[in-house]
Write a structure and sequence with these properties.
By secondary structure, this protein is mainly alpha-helical. The chain is built from eight helices and no strands.
């Protein structure tokens, strides 16, 4: 590869670095996932006042934040179906993000291999400025590849949390359904007792002869 042929390759590597930086800062669903995990945690501890107190800390309890947090936790617990929908949506986005991450890794690896081959081909024949640019770009690609590998490892660890959280949310949903069913049954029994009481109160009017002989 000649020095003339190397320049476009260096430009491509530069553009790949810029695209990677933009992608990492703008396209990651991580902020939404962090917010969702926080909401799920609140939903899980909705019935545990001690856990809510620990979450806000002693200063938060002093300022009454545990009350607001408890109300918010109760609302989120009632919104468990919505939380599960958010979890499923973000899990799909997280998988797509992982696929994009793999493509960026492949791109950087391909460019790094091409630049290494170019360096070996040119040897000491490359102009000094171009040689420095080549060495600098190879270093940047190597550092970016290492960073992507670290992100990929963390991405995989975080991805393993989704099935566990889904099972937890399904348990919350089942518990909420059981509580709702219990409340409905209690209301039905209460209505039946009230109806019987009303009928008992009407008995003298329905059977006045019984009332006279009683």
């Amino acid at each position: 590869m000649s020095a003339t042929e190397l320049a476009p390759l260096l430009d491509e590597a530069r553009d790949a670095q810029a695209a990677l930086a933009s992608w990492l800062t703008q396209d990651s669903p991580l902020p939404q996932i962090v917010a969702l995990f926080d909401d799920i945690h609140l939903a899980f501890i909705a019935a545990d006042q001690s856990a809510i107190g620990r979450r806000v800390g002693w200063l938060g309890r002093l300022l009454g934040r545990d009350i607001d947090t408890g109300i918010r936790a109760g609302e989120l617990r009632q919104q468990a179906p919505l939380l599960k929908h958010r979890l499923d949506t973000l899990e799909a986005q997280w998988q797509q993000y992982g696929e994009q991450l793999a493509r960026h890794e492949d791109k950087l690896s391909s460019l790094s291999t091409a630049l290494q081959a170019a360096a070996q081909t040119l040897g000491s024949n490359a102009p000094a400025a171009l040689g420095e640019r080549l060495a600098r770009m190879r270093l940047l690609l190597e550092m970016s590849s290492q960073q992507l590998q670290l992100i990929d490892d963390q991405h995989a660890i975080l991805g393993e949390a989704f099935p566990t959280l889904r099972e937890g949310l399904l348990s919350v949903l089942a518990q909420a359904d059981a509580v709702d069913a219990s409340v409905q049954q209690q209301q039905a029994y209460r209505h039946a007792r009230n109806t019987l009481r009303a009928l008992a109160d009407l008995k003298p009017q329905l059977h006045p002869e019984d009332a006279e002989t009683s």
